[in-house]
Fold each of these.
Amino acid sequence: MILDRLESAGYEAYIVGGCVRDSIMGFAPHDFDVTTSALPEETEQVFSSMRVIETGIKHGTVTVLTDGIPVEITTYRVDGEYHDSRRPESVSFTRSLKEDIARRDFTMNGIAYSPKRGLFDEFGGAEDIRRGVIRCIGEPERRFQEDALRIMRGLRFSASLGFGIEENTATAMLDCRALLKNISAERVFAELSGLLTGRNSDQNLRRVMSEFREIFAVIIPELKGTFDFEQRSKYHSLDVYEHSILAAESAARITKGQENQLALTLAMLLHDIGKPECFSIGEDGEGHFYGHAKISAEVADAILRRLKCSNALRERVCTIVKYHDIQMMNGDRLIRKHLAKFGEQTYCDIALAHAADDLAKRADYRGRSDVYFDLIERARQIASESCLTMRSLAVDGNALRGIVEPSPKMGEVLKYLLDGVVDGKFPNDREFLLQEAGKYIAKRRGK
């Protein structure tokens, strides 16, 4: 309807960019961008009977709401000079679609389609999609100097689509990587998040992060200390960095499409980042990293604050990192204690971290990962059947009033009773717990 209206008014109009790329690849587009020869005020006139939002009018973009769906319509444009590797100083409008496409990032995103005119593909994007190649439109260095975030976009596309990166484009990415320092932390983190959770990141994450590790060291400098750091451990055949990115890829695979995919994948990328600081050699010649989980969590916290990660995600990631190597396989008693300490969600996060970690170790240790999926199932069963919190304890402060006055001591008694129930020493029975509370108070008074 939008294309027809613009065409009927005498203008050219195409859908362009990601929606065309995804359609060619057989994926359903999530949104549509339209480009047109109509100037912004002409576009507004064409859609005067509909709700129009001046999204970025000075850059030629207006948004039309059709059936509640926003569609961005942008006038063909040519960008002016870039001085900050982020945005053009000015834009000028053009009636040439080719000039508009020539300013875009990659050939696969430089394809336009009109039902009336068919595909417009002056830069070979359809062929690059067929070959599985990410290639800049025009001169790669210029594209990245214009907007350095295109470097991260290219890596995200490579991981998500499974495409390789054309040689000149890859070289320019590496040469221009320092320009990423000019980009806001929020935009960089959004691209990193997309890279970690993309459609095929569970198959391509390690390849991309290994081939372009120097780029990732620009946005997370702390990673550089893990490069080529040999672990000298019977558990590991990979250096710290390669182990971490394989663990992250494994995490992406076992959580694919789930709400915890970003948290776990990010946690595994950072879970051993403190190892170089803790390295020591034992008398047996084995490498040891005592205390590395705590230090890694502290480093991860600093990194995620710098990247403007949300507080909830940062706290979740850092908790996984801090406890990623705790003992978990020791029966129902330990499961109950961990569930009481962490809660069900965090317990499952930590168990999945163990699984992803094992999948990145020497081949003979990878089979252990299945144990953690069994632990998760058992933990969920225990969580549904057991008393693990004060809320589910058979007694509360009111029930204890005849035994102890409201005070910090009452909280101490309730904790003692809950610990006993979680530990399996006490049944979660009101009368039994009241008797135990009385014994506990009497014993404390005797002391």
Amino acid sequence: MKKPWAGRFREATAMSVERFTESISFDWRLWKYDIMGSIAHAKMLARRKIISSKEAADIIRGLEEIHSEIIEDRFRFDPALEDIHMNIENALIKKTGNAGGKLHTARSRNDQVALDLRLFIRDETKGITGLVKKLQRILLNTARKHTKTVMPGYTHLQRAQPVVLGHHILAYVEMLQRDRERFDDSLKRIDVLPLGACALAGTTLPIDRKFLAKQLGFRKISENSMDAVSDRDFAIEFLAVSAIIMMHLSRMAEELVLWSSEEFSFIEISDSFTTGSSIMPQKKNPDVAELLRGKTGRTYGNLVALLTVMKGLPLTYNRDMQEDKIPIFDTADTLKVSLEVLIDMYPNININKQRMKMTSADGYSTATEIADYLVLKGLPFREAHEVVGKIVGYCIDNGIKLEELPTEKFRKFSPLFGNDVSSVTSIESSISRKKSLGGTAPDEVARQIQRLRKVIR
């Protein structure tokens, strides 16, 4: 197969090199964007009279035919042609002759692949944010149903203070909101046209980059041709933001694994989203959540892989950058399928309200409210903390709960305790008093839900 640089070389490329350097086995996924960019480029060349209108029409017709062939699975991708760019160009030349050979005027594969990647990541980013919004809405609907469902809040995986389940779920909605904002913000740096940078130095031909930007929907045009072809920071940012959201999804998955265990028994995941054991008939395993947790590591690895590829490269383009695509494709696929399975699974989770409330009552979780009670009576918090710590120790030694302790017993630890102390020892009272902005009181949680519904709309 004749190479596009064959004029300089006297020997054929070794077969081992062919196998080692080809990228069509994975970059074929960019075909749609390669064709899109080529059509815009052909229109621009004709507009600037660098090629004739007829040649542009022939090129566009040929590219549209190739588009149809790929859609219909009739196109043969040839590894000998290395990449998606040469596969499409070779097919175009066969269809249009000299006209197809003129398409590569005023561009290089360097700015061509940068364009394809930006178009791909732009589309993926928009698709991912749509899925994130869908998951947020599902979580919001679940939170709305559980503004009064009591559960233990944890620190260090130890029962800490009682909260409502809706409040707990809203924490993830807030995390996902920041993830969406990060993706939306990254579009400002993705949405920059590199086409026209050519190999690295621009071109002597009278191209129209503003026309190209308008045709391809780019808001900005790269200002430096060397920067345009030599950096992948926009792709690294995509991988970084994806890794952050996968971390959030992994934490959500971890809680689903814990909560579905016999030890917690807070939830039961539908049979449709669990699997069994090949040897233990009684088992019902949260494999979906576990896999989601595991796949997060892949996205971290992809981020580190591309950072490592780029860290030592001199300007401008280097063939190392061919290694950018697999991490990008894999992360995009992993994140989307993770979001999709959570979107499907979450509405199929049954909440064990009784179990949640029962565990909230254990562990002396209203101790902080009792300390706050003493603070309102004028005792410095550190002293109040010590007093309540002694009360908890007494209750543990005597096997009783805080709400079971008589008022006269409270007074033995501090004369500031009055008959109204019982109003702060119950779980319901503890929750309802958390009215501070962002707190877990049911009315405040309802307000948070209303605010988020407007934001996520």
Amino acid sequence: MLKVGLTGSIAVGKSYVCEILEEFGFKVLDADKVARQVVKPGTRGLNSIVEAFGSGILNEKGHLDRKSLGRIVFSDPQKRQLINSILHPLIIKKQGTWLNNLEKEGKTRVAVIDAALMIESESYKRFDEIVVVWCDDEVQLKRLMDRDSISREEALAKVKSQLSQQEKKEYASFLIDTTGGFGDTRTNTEKVARALIEIANKA
């Protein structure tokens, strides 16, 4: 089974790329969904976050208020490092279990984990191939502003809190450019999908 790590900065179109890869029969795990699982009420992850940041980051139902936490960590590199040190090991462990289960079943040729902070957390090292999704910087900012209904300044702050697109590209086995919109992104993704299938068939 070919293990593929897919990453890219915020608002570059990773979710759409993953939808296309699933059409090719790839198994895809979204790290953001895993991140939500590890902070459900009663989990070690949520308990650790409350210990570190206080109960003010919970909503009235006792669930993590991700927007409140986001406002705290985006503007403070040390706090961002703290939250990552709590969550990354839990997320990586769940991802590992998912990959192991697929491998035991023996029915999957290509398994993909989509994670924005894969390079920052160094979890990229366990994959056979790395796909980096990217787009023009101005396109990225506009998408982020539209998606989150935020100002250019807020969007820039979010973008700058992550490794730059250029730095992420240096780790790529394959690049998928989403600048041109849905049509071009589909064409670019399909090329990469076919290349990954070829690698998987040779393994």
Amino acid sequence: MPLSTISPLDGRYANKVKELSAYVSESALIRYRVMVEVEYVIALGEEKGVKELKRLSPKAKSELRSLYKKFSEADAEAIKQIELEINHDVKAVEYFIKQKYPSEFIHFALTSEDVNNLAYSLMWRDALRDSIAPTLNHLHKTLTACAKRHKNQPMLSLTHGQPATPTTVGKEFAVFAARLKRQVDQLKTHRLLGKLNGATGTYGAMVVAYPNVNWQNFSKKFVESFGFDWNPLTTQIEPHDSLAESFYILSRVNTIFLDFTRDTWLYISRGIFGQKKKDGEVGSSTMPHKINPIQFENAEGNLGLANALLLHLAEKLPMSRMQRDLTDSTVLRNIGVPLGHSLLAYKSILSGLSRLVVSKQRLNEELEDHWEVLAEPIQTVLRKVGHEKPYEKLKELTRGTTITKKDIQNFIKKLDIPEEEKNKLLKLTPHNYTGIADILAARF
């Protein structure tokens, strides 16, 4: 692990996020640019109106495509060396390809953003598909398994930090599983936009060179060949609205996990969740007894960092002065950073979940200490049978005082209500007053 790195993603946590380098590193960006340039010249060769460029043979296409399919770090270094000489990153890619395939139809009539908008969208889409989505699927399955495993385990709820209607451990896991699934489904089905229309979005140079070519149809077909939707009307840049939409979806995923990590931290603090011991591990530098919930704390911190960047990206990138300014360029280079912090957080949560132990003893103790939570169903049944001012009577009995099983049952026994309803209430305990939480937990 390099100790001189500036970012912990490239240092301390490098091994946990290294899979992303294939998609969002500088080398990956260069490779995706090569892909777009290569596919563009192949597509031009297929266009009958571009008579000066003959259709490439299958062998020539294969050789050209090998430039990105077999792209190496040495190739990336060669392109960076060209960039150092000419001070332009996209032009360096053009010159590199021309060394292998000498043709002025490489980057023909394009502006850099015709290449970049597609390259960055490819980076983002592929990183989501191949790294983020599988990890989120794993998390969803883990949460769902926890929900089903603990669907019948009653737990005291806290609303406003105060004892409230009991739930089950499984049902609370299911809430997060359901919330996560909705956002992950949106992340998977969301489609990015792409453009190919020249220096200011007018197809100007293309039309001058080949006025009889339907450049809009060509552009649409080319953009869609990458699996993107075509944006027919832009300035020099594709305005990044669809990228921003994707950033917002991922930020909502992270917000759900922020909520989850904080809740889990509090459950551990209450003692209703414990953590498995790990041989050799130290919880505190001075207190030997501690097992700190560091996985959930680490996740919370990284989720916050990820969302700060995702929201900045989403708010900044759709804005550009008139037809183009360069402020998006340096910002776009950072799209891998929130992915790194997100992935690190997800893996921390998975690690934390693998060590969680539900303390049935502590859960039962909490429930036994709070018989006052039965005030809600008792007053509700009294309303049903027409009893006068039931809420007020239960409020007088239970609010701000310690209530025992005996207190509750004595109150019920004195009620002038049908025996059927009275017997129903006498069977209620904080342990079985969980509604259909078990069914809800199994649903997801």
